[in-house]
């Protein structure tokens, strides 16, 4: 699959690998719980995460959305999805692979690899920079939600980013509620 632009990001969540798998794969239709760019999401085929299931991610209240399908899963170690529809301008093809590795008790390394082609092709470098910023917010939201159980939204992601910048490596958000972050 030549000519794909690749964006990779990593984060460590203070959560059991099975909890990470459950939230990202089994509850695939609930991505709005931790992705601040998603207003709402739901399964559009099947009602649990499995290869072939699809979800719709509502980007705003104006009808902009993405449709995604799980195309591969490797045990509880990784899965890959493909963006199969929606209203994402200048996007030709996009695949997202999420990998999970237990690195200690209640500690999971999460790797996100995105492969995409833009339309027109010369927009790929600009889109790659934008995508990296947006995907970091999603990964940070995933870490925050796993560690606190609290929803991540457009309204609280800036406070979550500020709190994250003050965390020592490997430390958890636990005990830092959104209310305390907004202060």
Keywords:
4 helices; alpha+beta; Alpha-D-Glucose-1,6-Bisphosphate, Chain A, domain 4; 27% helix; 183 residues; single chain; globular; seven-stranded antiparallel beta sheet
Blueprint of the fold:
Layout: E1 5-13, H1 17-26, E2 40-45, E3 54-58, E4 65-74, E5 78-86, E6 91-104, E7 107-118, H2 124-148, H3 157-166, H4 178-181
Antiparallel strand pairs: 1-7, 2-3, 3-4, 4-5, 5-6, 6-7
Provide the residue-averaged pLDDT.
90
CATH H-tier superfamily: START domain
- Overall shape: it is globular
Could you please say which CATH topology applies here?
A: Alpha-D-Glucose-1,6-Bisphosphate, Chain A, domain 4
- Report the sheet-strand fraction: 35-45%
N-to-C SSE series? EHEEEEEEHHH
Radius of gyration: 16 Å
State the oligomer: single chain
Count of extended strands: 7
Secondary-structure-based class equals: alpha+beta
- The number of domains is 1
Low-confidence stretches: none
State the CATH class. Alpha Beta
- What gap, in angstroms, lies between the N and C termini? 47 Å
- Give the CATH architecture: 2-Layer Sandwich
* Helical percentage: 25-40%
- Number of continuous helical runs: 4
Order of strands, main sheet, comes to 1-7-6-5-4-3-2
**Largest sheet features:** 7 strands, antiparallel
């Amino acid at each position: 699959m030549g000519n794909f632009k690749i964006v990779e990001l990593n984060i460590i969540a203070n959560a059991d690998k099975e909890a990470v798998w459950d939230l990202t794969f089994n509850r695939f239709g609930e991505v709005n719980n931790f992705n601040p760019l998603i207003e709402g999401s739901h399964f559009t085929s099947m009602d649990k995460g499995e290869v072939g299931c699809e979800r719709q991610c509502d980007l705003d209240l104006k009808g902009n959305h993405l449709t995604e399908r799980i195309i591969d899963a490797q045990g509880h170690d990784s899965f890959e999805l493909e963006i199969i529809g929606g209203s994402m301008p200048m996007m030709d093809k996009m695949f997202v692979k999420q990998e999970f590795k237990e690195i200690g008790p209640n500690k999971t390394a999460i790797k996100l690899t995105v492969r995409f082609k833009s339309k027109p092709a010369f927009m790929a470098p600009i889109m790659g920079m934008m995508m990296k910023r947006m995907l970091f917010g999603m990964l940070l939201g995933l870490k925050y939600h796993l560690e606190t159980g609290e929803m991540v939204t457009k309204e609280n992601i800036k406070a979550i980013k500020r709190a994250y910048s003050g965390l020592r490596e490997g430390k958890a958000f636990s005990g830092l509620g959104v209310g305390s972050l907004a202060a």
